[in-house]
Predict the structure.
Amino acid sequence: MKHILFVGMISFLLFTSCDNFLSSEEKDGVYLDYLGKSTEYEEMIQFRLINNSNASIEYWGYGSKSPFYNYQIKNDTGWSANMLGWCGTGAGVNELSTNSNIEFRSTKPKNTSVWRLIFHYKIKGLEEVETIYSVPIQN
């Protein structure tokens, strides 16, 4: 009986966490990949936005590789917003077609140890705004 439970638990873990073994390029949907510190700018972090959905997405920014984003800061009570004040001058809607990606840099929030990036987008032609999050990042 113990062996059956053990095999059942292993099967459950394998099937429920198999997405953890796939890179974001192999998953369906829209994802943010954390790439680490920028090699060019010490205070910047690199991300990759991947669109593996079946439709183009739209997002605001200063260009296709300068999207608007925000942060959340991890504290004792959970995640809290740490909004950035983006100026709208020169900004516009950018499009990322299906099965494509862009890389971009973000600044790091100051005075925090754990944070994550928040990214908003829309499926082209729809009004509903979607939100995705990076993995938690240790400063």
Notes: The mean pLDDT is 83. The longest strand covers residues 114-123.
